[in-house]
Structure formats: C-alpha cells, structure tokens
Amino acid sequence: MKKSVRYIVCAMAVAALAALAVYAADAPAAKPQTKCPVTGEAINKDKFVDVEGYRVYVCCEGCTAKIKADPKTYLAKIRAGGEEPAKAPAAADAPKCGAVKGGCCGG
Known about the structure:
There is one protein chain. Strand 2 (about 45-50) and strand 3 (about 55-60) form a beta hairpin. The protein has helices at about 1-25, 60-70, 70-80, and strands spanning about 30, 45-50, 55-60, 85, 85. The termini are far apart. Helix 2 (about 60-70) packs across helix 3 (about 70-80). Helices cover about 40% and strands about 20% of the residues. It has a domain at about 30-95. A 3-stranded antiparallel β-sheet has the order 2-3-5, covered by helices on one side. By secondary structure, the protein is of the alpha+beta class.
C-alpha cells in the first residue's frame, strides 16, 4: 500500500510541475527596465546601482542612495511595473584595476 501512495503523490507532484512550466511559458516576458523606480522618470543608462545581484538604472545620481537603503522595495516596484531589472555583472566580469582609462591606477 505504501508504494502506491508514494506513486500517486509523485505523479501529482510531476503533474503540478508540468502545469507550472506551461503557465510560465505562457506568461509574457517582462521587458527591460525603462523607468527610474524612485521618480518614474526615464532612466539614464550611465547611472545605476548594483543591489542584490541586479543592476538598477536610475534617472540621476540622487536616486542611488534611496535604492541602496531599501533595495527590495525598489526591485519590487520595477517588477510591479512589468519590467525586469538587468542582472548585475559578476565580479569576474568587472573591469580590472587600470583597465579603464582614468581608473584607480591612472591607466
């Protein structure tokens, strides 16, 4: 009897996962971020802050401190607007010291 119960539970779990996969495939993809989550203004691609693994673009430098202070709220606000923040580049992808003209080593 135990085997049949496990089989039924396993089959139900597989069916539930399959249903989730279909739902996720039908869900519209979120568009890239276009609005500053602080002001609602258009973003400036030269102004951003990396928080919780995401790169959040802002309209001006003044908005970065607010996002750093409460990143979860602003990430949620971006997603609530149907947009998705970009993934922040991994530390290995970041420019190396001196690799950028005028960098910390004066390169």
